[in-house]
Each structure stands twice: as structure tokens, then as C-alpha cells.
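#structure-requests
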Amino acid sequence: MIEIKELSKSFGLKQVLDDVTLQINEGQVFGLVGINGAGKSTLLRLISGVYKPDCGSVYVDGENVFDNPNAKSKIFFLPDEPFYGHKITPKNIIEEYKVYYDLNEKIYFDIINTFKLPLDKSMFNFSKGMKRQVFIALAIAIKPKYLLLDEAFDGLDPLARMCVKNYLLDLTKNGSTVIISSHSLRELSDICSSYGLIDNKKIGFSYVEGEMLSYHKYQVAFKEEPQEENFKFEYLKYAQTKRIVEFLTYSDLEKFTNELAPYNPLIIDEVNVDFEERFVLEVKAGDVK
């Protein structure tokens, strides 16, 4: 388990994170989301022990991670732009990582072959997506207990993204925990079982799949085409297609049914609020504060 407690980090006069508290359970894919510059990469570096927090702590399996080799040995952090030398190839890069990690070479080369990457060519001339594939192969072959990925799918084509997601899900089946930072919610919607939103230097909210959310969405059918100005109750979002209206609201089904009763709806159907809608609402709420 990863526990983040009252964590803050500044660079000079710029505060990036302020009093962040979060718990990430084992064996899941956790999505760390937020707009560009929200502090996602900084938080990953704090979790991996690369950065020292100004205050607060990060615990990995009960141990403070900073300056702790035992805790760090359980983590593999893949930044958005990992370092590599000019002469590094997919074939010889594993020699560097074998010094620090117990790496399964067969798994690594199998994944490199799946991605159809040239083994003996310098990675300096690779596209960003090809470089990303090499480091994903390393991460999977290492099988860390905690895998931290910064913008994991950036530069990957759709087929490669699908392959990577399958590899990551297989890791979690074997007990690993994967944390993926991204500003693209669509990339995470089919792989993550829980999420945390960084907004205004804090965790705006966290969400575990299956939890009851504070937002509710309804599709309502009317006998005749309604006019929006006729609805006198509060709602967050209104979308209409002829006689069908979609409402996004804080009201649960019982309250919403009572609010809508004077307008004689034919059908009221509650549908899921997707995470992208939740994200947009939370960010807008943060902007108002």
C-alpha cells in the first residue's frame, strides 16, 4: 500500500502540491489525472523518492520512501522522458537495468519482438512511441511491486496502447500496483479501477470504481418537446434531443422524480456518470472557489 500524508512540495516560490493526502491500495491500476502542470509528475517523483517533500511523508508498505533503498527497490518509475545514452539500443539497455533490478530477459525480448522494434539500432533515432515501448518492456520484465508511469501512452499508436494496457492488467493480476498519470481521461477509462484528481495543488477528489458518486445523470422522455426555461429546479447540465432530455444533477432518484413530477415525464432512466464528466465538473468547481 502507498500512503501519502499531508504532502507539500515547492520549487523556489512556486508551490506545486499543498497538503496532499491519498491512499493507493495494492493490486489495482490507479489513474492520477489533472490538467497539464497540475503536479502529476511531481507527485510521482515524490512517491518514488526522487524528490524530498517540503513537509509530509510518503509511505510504501509502511516505510518512508525517501532515502530508503528497501522501499525504493519495490518501485519502478518511468518518467515521460527517461534518460538513455546515445549508443543505447534495445539489446544492450537491459545490461544497465540488470544492475539494479531482477529483470526477466525472456519477457523483455518477447515484448520487444511483439512491438517489432529493431534490437541493434540506437534508440536515439527512435520515435517517442518506440522509446516508450522499450521502457514499457523493461517495466513489465522487471515486474515491480509498484509501477509508476508518467503519461504512459503518449506517442503510442492504438494497437500499441492496447498491448500495453493488457500487459499492465496482467501485472496487477500478479500482485503489482500500477499508477498512471495522464491528462487524457479517455486513455484511462478502460484500464483504471480507481482515480485521483489533482486540482489547485491538492487531491480534488479520489474515486474507486463502484463507489456512489455525488453526481447523478438521468435521461427523461416527455410526451411533447419541452422548453428548457420551463424547468424551475436546479441542475448542473442540460442536453436535449427533441423529446429526450439529459439532466446532470446532485439529486438522487427519489428527489429528482419529485422535482420532475409537475412536468409529467413519460420515462426517467438513471445512467452512469462517466469519469470525464466528473473530472470536468470538479475542475470547474475548483475554478469557482
